[in-house]
Records
---
Amino acid sequence: VTENMRSFRNIFLYECLFALTFWKHCSLSVENELFISASNDFPEDGSDKKIKSLPLMHTNSHQSKANFDWVVIQNTTESLSLSEITNGNVKKLVSLLSNFRQGSRLQNLTLTNVSVDWDALTQILQTVWHSSIEYFNINSVKQLSDIEKCNFDYSGTSMKALTVKKVFITDLYFSQDDLYKIFADMNIAALTIAESEMIHMLCPSSDSPFRYLNFFKNDLTDVVFQNCDKLIQLETLILQKNKFESLPKVSFMTSRMKSLKYLDMSSNLLHHDGADVQCRWAESLTELDLSSNQLTDAVFECLPVNIKTLNLQNNQIASVPKGVAELESLAELNLASNRLADLPGCSGFSSLEFLNVEMNLILTPSADFFQSCPRVRELQAGHNPFKCSCELQDFLRLERRSGGKLAGWPAAYVCEYPSALRGTQLKDFHLSELACNTALLLVTALLLTLVLVAVVAFLCIYLDVPWYARMTWQWTQTKRRAWHSHPEEQETVLQFHAFISYSERDALWVKNELIPNLEKGEDCVQLCQHERNFIPGKSIVENIITCIEKSYKSIFVLSPNFVQSEWCHYELYFAHHKLFSENSNSLILILLEPIPPYIIPARYHKLKALMAKRTYLEWPKERSKRALFWANLRAAISINLPTSFEANEDESD
């Protein structure tokens, strides 16, 4: 400890001993170390060598309260804190404070748990007003007696700031002016009256030096400071947690505060319906806190034109109307915890740099936000119920191009919908370009459709699908006509052993070889030939179908001529249809001449399949082998026709 500090400490102890000879307790802090004296014996020379000191943190507070008139919490060369102030020790307190005249080092005084009457309270204030104290804090004040008018002397003070918290007034009947006037006319820079259920505050009687007013958590209403033109130096006004309701009235309140820069109206009951009510704010106001009120979209019709920082958090705003508010100076806007469904544009906020839209109802943020708001440096859009879909892809690309402008990314950006993706961070959500690009998807679908149509068309042409469709239609129509003409005939009666299908170019072989060899002898085979058995008046197709259905077998004489015949193709198709529809083994193939595969048309794919899967009889060129050929053919045809039909045939012959 330096000599100057030691000398000052001795002087302070002497003054403490002189002022508190009837108290039993004095504390001293040297180099930020706090001690409390527990001895009643002070040396006459003022030295502290014989003072028995203990650290304050080891002192029994209950014992101290029992032994002393009040407890000294802290006392340094510049700060003094006292508690348990009552009417019984006010005179001692005033006597002590009177020693700290202007020029003393004591600048900070805190009184806690003050329970005195009105006269004692005003006496304490008056004493402090003419001391060296600059910052005075009073916590937990209980006023016990009637409040009366007080002629307070504000002159010659060193005071800069007064803070009063948790004031409880027991007097129910008093003049409001007597209470509030003493505070309203104070000639200090800063005044705080908080958590005190204060219902009103007077306008100062003359131009006030107040630069800072804080009336946090009281019961003030819209009538406060209306038409008050005395707060011309006021820069900061805090009215948080009161009972203000009308936003226009709040604006009128500020209109005469020529120096006001910051206004806190958060946690009130403010609303504005925009019913042709003009708002008039202080032109100097640049920072406004309207959070936790009942404001809707109409609030943008009642805002200070020169505002730079605006807090509208926790209101009922669903959108930011375009063309309503032209806030060209607005740099910071907080719209968190509202009802926004999308990011607001910057058409009226050309200088906006910071935007907070957290905890709204934004599903898919607009991807053109940074284009409409080029000066925005930080966007807080997390904790919204994001819908992870194609529309969100543009926003994700925006994040990648933003250069870190999204605050809280990626932890605060999580999918809420659909439920399958709930909890997934947006950075982990990906969809293909094809799934989200409508134009690309349409082009791709169109190309695939064209390719599919081209393939189908090619197959139709190559496989002659129209021809098969036409044949199927003719088959169906023929069957239908036959059923309507003879509905009593439920089953077709077999009349022939075999129907012969051949090309006209092979007719000579059929007439000279096939028919004579099958129809001669005891086992005469009844053959159906178009020249003999087609019924005049019916269509060729109908005759073909009828003959095939009335024949047990169908003999196809295959040759290069056969595959070139259109009618042979018809006959093969209908016979093949019968093969599958009746599940019968009714086809007999005779290969009259070898058929090179390359000359078989594409639509003859059934013929190719039959020749590949079924056994066929090949006409031998050697005469010695022909007897076996005819025997095999007869064996393949062998069947007994109905007796009645054979008898009819004999009679007709």
---
Amino acid sequence: MKFEDLLLETGGFGRFQILILVALCLPRINLPMHFLLHNFIAATPSHHCAIPHREAFVNLTMEEVLLISIPRESDGTFSSCEMFSQPQFHLLLNSSLQSENKSSVQRCQHGWVYDHSQLTSTISTQWDLVCEQRGLNQATATFFFIGVTVGAVVFGYLSDRFGRKTMLLLSLVCSVVFGMLSAASVSYSMLAITRTLTGVALSGVSLIVLPLAMEWVDIQHRTFTGIVSSIFWSVGNMLLAMVAYLVREWHWLLVAVTGPCLLSIVCLWWVPESARWLVAKGKMKQAHRHLLRCARMNRRKDFAVSPEALTRMATDKKPGGSYFYISLFRTPVLRKISLCSGVVWFGVSFSYYGMSMNLTGFGLNIYLSQFVFGVIEIPAKMIMYVMVNRVGRRQSQAWTLILTGLCIGANVVIPKSFTSLRSVVAIMGKGFSEAAFTTVYLYTSELYPTVLRQNGMGYTSFVARLGGALAPLVFLLDEVWRSLPEVTYCSVAVCSGAVAFLLPETLNMCLPEGIEDVE
């Protein structure tokens, strides 16, 4: 008897599974509020050099003061990072003139003045992370994703060793602690360290929530569970836009997005440990207790499987044996799956965060752009619900990634003047990107056996977070060539999409329990 047959005897997909999904929705909603928080706490408003001795120009308007103090860029806007060493009063007579003496232009000497009309306070304005310090601003997202990368390795192993629920609780508690410490940061160094540790903690939530839900549902409802869980991510995306719109000060915004983790901890007390994991680890009495509870809640009074029957059903001769990340590469089929899925996860994450962290250029403010990006994800997920069951996981994964890359590449060649067309193509690309992310979570959880599933998810999440960590830094390549970031995102997405064709199909297949099932 396979574990899927056992689930059917407990009612398959009933009230028990629905309640698990509902209980796990809150941590899933909370994830994007932290993962995309960089868009708001590190947003850089328009700014210019602070002008010394402002009181000497009392007879001039602000526009005139800027005219004689700040050089203009080629597009006519005032420079953000340069100022005149001496006031250029002759520009008052003819503003179209430019100072011919290049030596009169210098970098900002007295700090910056920021436009606070949209953002009251960000880390950019608090610590002047602009111009020469722009790299440090982008690095805050990289630090966070480095933490997520480390956490993927740590929690992937620990959740296979000590259980899904225990590690999920631990990661939520740590998320609250480090999230609040981030909000209390008094220096850039403190923020960088606490955001990195927050990333480590939240990685456990990201890694465990979906497999914990998936291991309690039957084959027929696996896709539904994966899509519904993914929709909660999109809801979090939209909620982030609304919360950030209401809370414009970065300290309090961090508090606002960390607080819901407390409610997640409360909800998690009801969620049972994965019976599939308990059986794989030889803990038959605990597994039997949870399965009995599941059958009763699903009104299946005829459930009569004993702990002894579970022992006979266990697929591994050493159910309590330990597996490590190296086990993912010891056998031929698992090795191929691990190498290919690593490339796919890197491409999915790299292109997704590359698009998600670029909220400018749509003619909308950053709050509306964030909300629109969240909204477009929901129909993308609905379409994927049909596609993964009709054309399969492999084709869906490959083509959504390739189409994401093509949309990013299209905006490289579409002229800047075609604003509406560029916006439509970008939003389509965001939809395909989210569809690829939705598919990869479902697909990967079906590729690995139960005894190695969390190790597999930990490994792929590790590779994905490397992509997430590099994505914000790629924006700095625009100093080499304006379109180089987009060309990079496009190339990686298309290449990783092609690699997805090498993975095996899992549509309508039983979840593998042991390594021999995969081989």
---
Amino acid sequence: MPPVFPMLTVLSMFYYMCLRRRARTTTRGEMNSRRAIESNTRALPINVEIVQYAKEVLDFSSHYGSENSMSYTMWNLAGIPNVYPSSGDFTQTAVFRTYGTWWDRCPSARLPFKRTPSNFCSQDYVELAFEEPVYPTAVHILETYHPGAVVRILACSANPYSQNPPAEVRWEILWSEAPTKVNGPQARQFTPCIKQINFPTNLIRLEVNSSLLDYYTELDAVVLHGVKERPVLSLKTSMIDMNDIDEDEDEEKYGCGMDTLNKQFSIVTLREWPTNGYFDKLPYELIQLILSHLTVPDLCRLAQTCKLLYQHCCDPLQYIHLSLQPYWARINDTSLEYLQSRCTLIQWLNLSWTGNRGAISVSGFSRFLKVCGSELVRLELSCGHFLNETCLEVITETCPNLQELNLSSCDKIPPQAFNHIAKVGRLRRLILYRTKVEQTALLSILNFCSELQHLSLGSCVMIEDYDLIASTMGAKCKKLRSLDLWRCKNITESGIAELASGCQLLEELDLGWCPTLQSSTGCFTNLARKLPNLQKLFLTANRSVCDTDIEELAANCTRLRQLDILGTRMVSPASLRKLLESCKDLSLLDVSFCSQIDNRVVLELNANFPNVFIKKSFTQ
């Protein structure tokens, strides 16, 4: 008589492994229990599901709106829906700063970092706090215009409203997927199938990639469903994903705990092998070239195989360009300490999004730069909320060769700290988008950093006199090629005239949402005549742009590739035809909310100029 419980076959073992992957939130004891495997019912007691909208927006990387209003800002994600289920372009929604690939095809575009893992494609993020910590059962994202940008949803173990911060902050990916093209701009409720986690959360992070979108994505609200008690999965809760079979790979590749990466960095024990295989026969340079295609975690894993590959994987030449942004949730002081010996020759370093909630300290960052900063040429620190005046002082003292500095959305840096940047005389690129830089510090930077070629001052609301800033740029920054003055509130035709006269190499100029500029003063005509090299010009929401301005651009700026005149009421189809006929390289023309340009005109222009993306937005 056969035994009641036969030994596991290969098929049943495969089934068992799949169950373990799907029920990862339960303890090992629960999962090893035959009762937990064989039961087809949920564990009691049954939890009442809690449904809640975001209470507060805690952090974000960018937004289309102003720092002093609610229109098109991330703050609109807090609370109940304002727009949904309506579709269209509405000011009451949350909108990120960019869309499509246009920003990667302009003079200010930065070269990408190599070794970025294929599963990391996030461009922007927003973090939302909810009232009650719960074990998530569902996340609903209400998208009202051009949906499809969300690529990752994460949950955090830290309670933003707790008086006692945890010793370790843990992030867990609830859902992740590559960017996909959604047919049509209509509103939708996006509810991906999320993974269960083993801790309650009231902090949710959305990461987006808008590269496949035809226009700005607009989000209205986020709804978190969850239960107060930790649920146990039944066999009937969800289908098993074949990709979940490799438990070790999944934990290392997608887990967000800091311990995993730090253990890889710190590995020193190596297996003893009699030889290094065929690698002994390869030239050192060839092995280095092969390894240059590996991501940082893969390098750390490979270093554990043999002494020869350990030597190669720890060679500072492998870390000339290093982006730690994809691992933002796992980077802390210990990570930087482990990397110090490998990064003595580093030239490009990306620490964007890292170090928040105490993960990186001022002392840890300073120690790393004092060892590794001497050769740095490019330093990306976007959304680094740990940065303070000491950090900027250390950067200027330890990075004498620095040419590119990105402090985008580092809104915790105090205004006086920016004075230190003036000491970096070789700077060619400086991004200060959404920072608290003040006029005195900026004037000092412009006077001492005459090599500047790319400067972003978008949404810098603490600058009092942009005319003075523009005049100083015209006098001191003759090599300027791109300038972002997005939502600059007080620049006038006087400042524009000084800028155009002194910075005639300008190829890119963003004057979007600058309400003090009026076409009747001749400022746009002057720009077109003085700046023949313009490739990108954004005059977004300037309702005074007229046919004369467009015709001057057609006559003088024949290299123009991108033009945004959203919201103007005074541009006719005839002037646009002249522009399109003259500017053969034009690829983007935004005429949204231009009252004289209706859908019929857009269809006609698209038919006659098929190589130009002509955007016409709408509101229902």
---
Amino acid sequence: MERRGAAAGGDVCMCQTVFPAHANHRGELSAGQLLKWMDATACLAAEKHAGVSCVTASMDDIQFEEAARVGQIITIKAKVNRAFKTSMEVGIKVTVQDVLTNVEKIVSVAYATYVAKPVGAGKIELEPVKLLSREDHLEHSLAIERRRIRLGYEQVFQNLMQESNKEGDYCDSFEEEDAVSTDLTHVQSIELVQPPHANHHGNTFGGQIMAWMETVASISASRLCRSYPVLKSVNMFKFWGPSIVGDRLVFNAIVNNTFQNSVEVGVRVEAYNCEEWIKNQARHINSAFLIFNTVNDKGELLTFPRIKPTTKDDMRRYHGAIARRRIRLARKCMLSAKEDKPSDSWERSNQAYVSYSNIAALTHLAAKPGWEITSTLDDIKIRTHEEGDVLSFKVEMQVKIPSHLAFSLLSDFTLRQQWDKHFLTCEVLQAVNEDEKIYYVTSPPMTGHKPRDFVILVSLRQPCKPSEPYIVAVKSVTLTSVPPSPEYCRSKILCAGFQIYSDSNTSCTVCYFNQVTSGVMPYIAANLTGSSKSIEDTALECIKFLELKGSKY
């Protein structure tokens, strides 16, 4: 297997002025044109790192936050965040700048996956990305989490569909007078792939296919709203196979469901070469779900009419749209770890995103600059970080056991009582999978206060390479099956956990983090676990526990 790649990774910036030819009837940059630019820029970044031709494998959910108008400047920055042997994640950031006011706004932030295309029959193994900045390290760490979400998306979707079946959702009534038959929204378009639509290897540009999909989906949505729909988001473009110059591409679009002010349109793309065209043997190469809304002259959102599924397949797509919307809303709430008050509800539709948020929050916290040392002992360093009304603690402990043993011991929270006396009880509520568990924890009362209880998610991650840490991330979640009790004061953990780095075969550095707001400060009072016991003493107990248990292995 040949190893290829520029060690510094791909970093590409493209600037474009929006001309009338790029715009729609409102003078705004068309979403299809923007998708073409995004794909082209990201592909250049991928090829800069790989050193060979690359093809688009998928593009994650895309949200369009701002519209760019004629005369404004679009800047697209793309960078390879992480290489996974033969594929890589490319981060894409799109901003728009008004040349008159110099105001710059974010249009979209997206992530795409590209695959290196080998020359001949051999396979290519990509070089790791060289990390040059704190932001590089952060995105590199989170890329593996985003990959887990991509790989688990289909299972989450199928679980939601099964849940829908059990709840009897298919018995809905669609007898409203204004309900529109889905048949009326079906649109088909055929495109012949010409040389300008393809790269130098003759493969159709992924961005060109995305642009054609946006066009046919927009026409489908317009049959409901009697207006000009605006693309707001896309549920993952996934490329199942290639197409080449000379292929006929058939695009079929149909409205799957409407949600008051938005509509989901599903698009399926099939390819035919000359022989397949005659025999009607299609190759399914792409599918995506596009979400539109529409506004009146005053910029107010318009309401879409309900649709009326008429076949079993219509019903499947109708309820599939509901499941995707649940996932989309969960993603919107959870994917940004920088949100002040992210949702902590633990539901089937958002489990992957809550887990991502848990890992991402701890990773962001650990990567923050400006940690100040407040105390130093022989094997312990205590640092603090203040930002607004949020105070964070970092406790570094030098432990004489291998990192994998420390990870094993610290990841089992039922053992926490053996070194942390402020864990009164700890029981497992749900073993979601081998990397995720939900615990119910109680703490003894402090003077003048009720005893506290917590419902926490503990997410575990092992390193992909020696330089990366083991991670034990902790945050509070809400379970409807465990409501607050009058006997306890239900408390919340914003962000906490451990990062464990290997120093040698027999020693490691354990870093404990805890983030609290000013409202929780009376409980914590400069302590590791929110009790009257000092951080230093609790850290010493932790080291003693780890080294004692570790010596028995």
